[in-house]
């Protein structure tokens, strides 16, 4: 893969994402993103980098020739084109993870961070060098300055069971987050560069607008991920979330009604309803001990 020719059009590999964190910038990738490309990538990558590199990558948000990139960076950083070439060339052709030292800071990068524009395969996100302005650099601090990297949204505290071992506060009345507020939270998470969002309850399948919520998450490049439930799901509910490819985990606890009635306080027939629905998908594997089953839609 030759991208050192000055007339070659190149682009930032948008499988990776950039986020500014006040005194440093961060490059990261997300799990379970569909990869339909011959370009190899480092999945689940997170590293802190000097903001200057994030600024450089911002000029690569869209296709640009190598020669134009040298010129743009030289002008932006007020350096010679030879110096710009010295800074940029080491990141242009790297098919393995690597690091570069800049101003006493070691910057770690994943493989194929810059690729030929003709081989781009991920959704483009436009960055500006002004997104990564800084007054000082701190690569060492582990705690993030601006926002966490993962988030859990508790949709409600409603349940279909009343588990004897549950730690939840049962004195609080059943509530759920309004759909409009959840959309705002997901949009804000995307703008802050939060890497992943997990959904929790209560019971996620008792959230009436779950399919609509998964659609919003998909719009902002957040996969549905793992949905844990105790609901004996109907075919209608399964089909409503199938377009978003979640992994469904059913916590069954036991397979005998007398035991389930005692520890979950559910009605007789609960286990049969669960087994009938999940076995009908043809994809479910049951743990014979009754501890759980997982079905990937």
Keywords:
alpha+beta, 3-stranded antiparallel beta sheet, 4-stranded mixed beta sheet, 26% helix
Explain what you see.
- The protein has 8 helices and 14 strands.
- By secondary structure, it is of the alpha+beta class.
Short description:
The chain is an alpha+beta fold and 297 residues long. The protein is 26% helix and 20% strand.
The number of helical segments is 8
Question: Largest sheet, if any?
Answer: 4 strands, mixed
Number of strands: 14
Fraction of helical residues: 25-40%
- Give the distance, in angstroms, between the N- and C-terminal Cα atoms: 36 Å
Radius of gyration: 24 Å
Class by alpha and beta content: alpha+beta
- Give the overall shape: elongated
Strand order of the largest sheet: 11-12-14-13
pLDDT < 50 runs, ≥5 residues: 282-297
SSE succession: EEEEHEHHEEEEHEHEHEHHEE
Output mean pLDDT: 87
- Strand content of the residues, in percent? 15-25%
How would the blueprint of this fold be written?
Elements: E1 9-12, E2 16-20, E3 25-29, E4 46-49, H1 51-58, E5 64-65, H2 66-77, H3 81-88, E6 98-102, E7 105-109, E8 114-116, E9 150-154, H4 179-192, E10 196-200, H5 210-219, E11 226-229, H6 235-241, E12 247-251, H7 257-263, H8 270-279, E13 285-286, E14 292-296
Parallel strand pairs: 9-10, 11-12
Antiparallel strand pairs: 1-5, 1-8, 2-3, 3-4, 6-7, 12-14, 13-14
Helix pairs in contact: 2-3
């Amino acid at each position: 893969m030759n991208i050192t020719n000055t007339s070659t059009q190149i682009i930032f590999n948008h499988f990776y994402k950039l986020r500014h964190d006040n005194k440093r910038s961060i490059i990261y990738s997300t799990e379970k993103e569909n990869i339909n490309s011959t370009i190899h990538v480092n999945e689940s990558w997170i590293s802190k980098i000097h903001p200057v590199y994030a600024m450089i990558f911002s000029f690569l948000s869209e296709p640009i020739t190598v020669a134009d990139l040298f010129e743009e960076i030289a002008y932006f950083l007020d350096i010679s084109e030879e110096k710009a070439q010295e800074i940029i060339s080491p990141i242009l052709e790297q098919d393995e993870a690597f690091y570069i030292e800049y101003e006493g800071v070691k910057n770690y990068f994943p493989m194929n961070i810059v690729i030929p524009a003709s081989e781009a395969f991920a959704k483009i996100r436009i960055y500006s060098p002004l997104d990564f302005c800084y007054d000082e650099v701190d690569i060492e601090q582990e705690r993030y300055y601006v926002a966490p990297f993962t988030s859990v949204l508790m949709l409600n505290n409603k349940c279909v069971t009343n588990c004897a071992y549950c730690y939840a506060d049962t004195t609080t009345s059943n509530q759920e987050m309004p759909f409009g507020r959840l959309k705002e939270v997901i949009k804000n998470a995307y703008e802050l560069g939060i890497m992943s969002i997990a959904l929790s309850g209560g019971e996620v399948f008792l959230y009436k607008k779950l399919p609509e919520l998964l659609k919003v998450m998909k719009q902002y490049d957040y996969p549905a991920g793992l949905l844990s439930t105790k609901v004996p799901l109907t075919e209608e509910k399964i089909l409503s979330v199938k377009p978003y490819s979640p992994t469904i985990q059913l916590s069954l606890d036991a397979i005998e009604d007398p035991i389930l009635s005692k520890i979950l306080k559910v009605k007789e027939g609960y286990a049969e309803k669960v087994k009938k629905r999940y076995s009908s998908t043809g994809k479910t594997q049951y743990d014979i001990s009754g501890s759980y089953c997982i079905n990937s839609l």
